[in-house]
Structures are given as C-alpha cells and as structure tokens.
Amino acid sequence: MNKVVLVTGANSGIGLALCERLLSQDTEGLQLCLACRNMQRAQAARSALLTSHPTAQVALLQMDSSSIPSVIRAAQEVKLRYNRLDYLYLNAGIMPNPQFDVKAFFKGLFSSKIITMFATGEGILTQKDGVTSDGLQEVFATNLFGHFLLIRELEPVLCQAGRTSQLIWTSSSNAHRSAFNLEDVQHQRGTQPYSSSKYASDLLSLALNTHYNKQGLYSSVICPGFVRTSLTYGILPSFPFLWTLLMPLFWLIRMLTNTFTLTPYNGAEALLWLYKQKPESLDPQVKYHSLTSGLGNNYIQPRKMDIDLETSEALYEKLLQLECEVRKKLKEKQKQSQHVQQ
C-alpha cells in the first residue's frame, strides 16, 4: 500500500527539501501531493523532483492557506483523489514585511545573547501584518487557521478505523509565549504575528492530540533551526550583501550551537525523522528540533514546549468558534452571488 503524503508550501525551501528527501527514502511506496499557492512554482518543483526521481508519483494541488474558499476547494479535491491520507505536513508559512532592528542587532552582536538572537530572531524582528479578503489577519490565517480548517475538512481521510495518520507542523524557535495572547489570537494588536502564530501552532498541536488520538490521528511539532530560505532572506532586503558578510559568522556560530542548520535539507531532518516514527510513541508536549553539528552531521532532539493543556484547549475552542463564523459568512457570500447571477 502506497503512503499518501500531502505537504503544504512544498514548492520551495524546507517543504521542497522534505519532498526530495521523502522520495529519496521511499520513491516506490509514496504518493506525494504538493499543495502550493503558486502553480507555476509548483510545476517547477514537480519537474525538479521528477528529474531526480523519474518513477515517483507527484501530484499538484492549488491551495492558498490564507484563503478560506481556497482551503475548502483544495480539501474537496483531496477527498476526491484519495480515500485516505497518511501524512499531512502543515508547512506553509509567511513572515510578511519583516522589520529588522539594526540598532538592536549590533547591540546584540556584542552581548551574551548573540546566539539566542540569531537562533530565534528575538529582539531584532517585528512584522507588519495584513488582512485577508476573508477579514482575517494574514499571518494568523496563513500559518495557523487555514491549516486548522484544512484538518477539519480532511477528517474523513485522516481519521479511519484501524490505522493511524500524522499531522506534522513546521513551527519555529521564534514561537514565544510572550508574543501570544489568548484574548487576541489573531494578533491584531501586536508586532510579532509570526511568533504568535507559531506559538499558537504548538498549542493547537497539543489540543489536536487531545481531541483526535482516539480516532487514530496524531499531531507533532518540529523546529527546522535557523535556515536560509526565502522567508529569512526577506529579513534583510535592503542589505543583501550582509548575508555574504554574515555567512562566516554563521558557520562559526554553528561550532558553538547546533541550531544553525542553515540549509533547507538540514532543516527538514526532523520532518523526515517523524515520517519514520510510530505516532503513538511520540510525546505531544515535545517539539522535535532539527540540529546540525559543527562538523555538519544532522540529528534531532526533542525539547519540552512551553505550553499547557488549559491554554491549548481554550485556543481550540476559539478556533472552532471562528470556524463557525467564517463558514456562515462564506455561505452568505455564496447566496448573494447566486442571487446576483439569477
């Protein structure tokens, strides 16, 4: 039986590196589906994968996790194509308009917090969020809520008697409790929507285990470490030369800390490791970190997350409530559209 694997945000970075590594492990026994917003880039990614793995089964799915109608359409398509889903990698994410605090950066360079600063972006990164056409905060919708809705929509293919399925979230070391507020889950009033959304995904993973383990569905969270992707390149858009200057420093820091994975291939280590595990054996309160030694060897390490059951359950209830609201709005829009057409 082929394993069916769906990866969101699969056309570049860690998502594409994961797909390449999955196919290298298990080309014949895998049905891989790349869920991407930009189909032109998705086609290029598929071509690249098929160049190195000509016999692989690689399908494409158009999905924008920031758009409620797009997520629902994509989920319907998945249910038409597959009678089950073994792995759902919730990897798509954005960090829009990152603001880089140069003063804080250079101050941090000469402090004891230098490694933490580089590893997590703490103190040097803020973002300006936007609002989606559905009226949701863009980072919250893309990184968290769109994925939550996708899981809810895919319950029939994820939860089936007699077998297990896995949800695997790409979180971050930037997931800080201090950035998250249960009274403002969309982070409308803050300046760290990315950090808030990643902390919320840690909480949500725990709640999903509480509600779905009995149905054979398990959720895990990973941190890819500090990886150079389009997400991180956007942090220094005005200073592209800085990446060249900083690389020797990054390699030096890697000798001191194992969180500097640097490449998408290395960052995908924990994602690939979870593919090989029995989900029942995993700890729902642990984040699995991709790590790379100073000599360039990849390994994973489980680290306890700063989360609790009470807050995770409260977030889950808020997301269910929001789901009801957005579905209601979507139905009203569809009715209005039909009325106009008539």
Please characterize this protein's 3D structure.
The mean pLDDT is 87. Strand 7 (165-170), helix 8 and strand 8 (217-223) form a beta-alpha-beta unit. Helix 3 (68-81) runs parallel beside helix 6. The chain is globular, with a radius of gyration of 20 Å. The protein has 13 helices and ten strands. The protein is of the alpha/beta class and 342 residues long. The strands form two sheets. An eight-stranded mixed β-sheet has the order 3-2-1-4-7-8-9-10, sandwiched between helices. Strands 5-6 form a two-stranded antiparallel sheet. 47% of the residues lie in helices and 16% in strands. The protein has helices spanning 13-26, 39-52, 68-81, 102-109, 114-120, 138-153, 155-158, 193-212, 230-233, 240-256, 264-267, 269-275, 309-341, and strands at 3-8, 30-36, 57-62, 87-90, 98-100, 125-127, 165-170, 217-223, 286-292, 298-304.
